[in-house]
Amino acid sequence: MDKQTLVRDLKSHVGGAAFINQSQLAKYLKRSREAIPDLLKGLDFLETGREKKYFIPDIAARLLEIRS
């Protein structure tokens, strides 16, 4: 899977948005929410009150990076 395909898939999972939160990412990866913070460590985020939102292309790059 290449980065473009992964970005498109993640965006469709969140309804076309450019950002994803930890709960949505956990559901996408079918993992528990406890596994997600380690995956996101060091990535930039937007804090929107109660949650942190991460830029989907950054998430896609990180997922492909750990896959290698």
- Structural class category: alpha+beta
What is the fold named in CATH at topology level?
Arc Repressor Mutant, subunit A
**End-to-end distance:** 11 Å
The name of the CATH architecture is Orthogonal Bundle
Q: What is the 3D form?
A: globular
For the largest beta-sheet, the strand count, sense and barrel status come to:
3 strands, antiparallel
String of helices and strands:
HEHHEEH
List keywords for this structure.
Arc Repressor Mutant, subunit A, three-stranded antiparallel beta sheet, alpha+beta, globular
Secondary structure elements and pairings:
Blueprint (H helix, E strand, L loop, with lengths): L2 H11 L5 E3 H8 L6 H5 L5 E2 L4 E4 H12 L1
Antiparallel strand pairs: 1-3, 2-3
Helix pairs in contact: 1-4
In short:
The chain is of the alpha+beta class. The protein has helices at 3-13, 22-29, 36-40, 56-67; strands at residues 19-21, 46-47, 52-55. α1 (3-13) crosses α4.
Notes on the structure:
This protein has 68 residues and is an alpha+beta fold. The chain has one domain (3-67): Arc Repressor Mutant, subunit A, CATH 1.10.10. It is built from four helices and three strands; from the N terminus they run H-E-H-H-E-E-H. Helix 1 crosses helix 4 (56-67). The termini are close together. The model has no long low-confidence stretch (mean pLDDT 95).
